[in-house]
Amino acid sequence: MPQFMTLAEAVEANIRDGDAVAMEGFTHLIPHAAGHEVIRQRRKRLTLIRMTPDLIYDQLIGMGCAARLTFSWGGNPGVGSLHRLRDAVERQWPCPLALSEFTHAEMAVAYQAGASGLPCGLVGQHAVTDLARVAAVGVKALRCPFTGAALAAVPAIRPDVTVLHAQQIDAAGNVLIRGIIGAAKEAALAARRVLVTVEEQVAKLSADTNALVLPAFVITAASIVPGGAHPSYAQGYYQRDNAFYLAWDEISRQRETFAAWMERHVLAVRDHAQLLRSLGVAA
């Protein structure tokens, strides 16, 4: 059964300098509140893992929390580039950032391999690309011993910590995710520790079609954080804040405006509820 604690306590107990940290959530349920708490606690030298790093990873990278990014696509969805990510790669500001880049399919099988206790996952190799050259531990070409088909072996992803946001948790610590599941299950099962923030605690979960229940024994720590996915959305609770994604393009474009925004809305606030109030958003 997970430990129920404040988000500050959960991050302090479970995320350490130098950890490999996966923060998943595909288009929604992105754990922004947890990412901000990592920034407040000044974690350093993290390997950040995410299939689609967007705003929260731009913020973590820009605040100097990351030494490496393992990913399969990065950008401000529907808007453009991540300017803090670009600055780190192109100019090493605020510190150098190494990249391990894969395709979506490769990341998916890497998570699956980690969740299954395997050293690697396999995908069909339809064409040789330069991605193998830029990954820290590159994809390796091989032949199927049964058919001779061209395959690619992808090293398993095993995070020290996986961080997720979800809709509900029950009294026993079982966690319910509704909507687009993405890599949440695999990322959780592959990790040594799992930290989950949720919209609410309920007496009993009511799972339905297209829902995932992570059993309590998978979860290390849980925190009740309403609005914890903002500005992404939580199906059934609140919509995506599209205006913020547009605004972030200008906020993050220059180092000075980025640093001022982070100081005011992340470092100077006590918790995610205060951050939402500072943005004029109801939790």
Structural overview:
This protein is of the alpha/beta class. It has a single domain, classed as Glutaconate Coenzyme A-transferase. It contains ten helices and 13 strands. Strands 1, 2, 3, 4, 5, 9, 10, 11, 12 and 13 form a ten-stranded mixed sheet that branches. α5 packs across α7. The mean pLDDT is 94.
- The separation of the N and C termini measures 27 Å
pLDDT averaged residue by residue: 94
Number of helices: 10
Q: Could you state the oligomeric state of the chains shown?
A: single chain
How would you name the CATH homologous superfamily? Glutaconate Coenzyme A-transferase
Count of folded domains: 1
Helix/strand/pairing class, anyone? alpha/beta
Overall strand count: 13
CATH architecture: 3-Layer(aba) Sandwich
Strand content: 15-25%
Described by the principal axes of the CA atoms, the overall outline is globular
The CATH class is Alpha Beta
Low-confidence stretches: none
Helical amount: 25-40%
Q: Kindly provide the radius of gyration, computed on alpha-carbon positions and rounded to a whole number of angstroms.
A: 19 Å
Sequence of secondary-structure elements? EHEHEHEHEHEHEEEEHEEEHHH
Task: Give the CATH topology.
Answer: Glutaconate Coenzyme A-transferase
The largest β sheet comes out as: 10 strands, mixed
Please give a quick description of this structure.
The protein has 283 residues and is of the alpha/beta class.
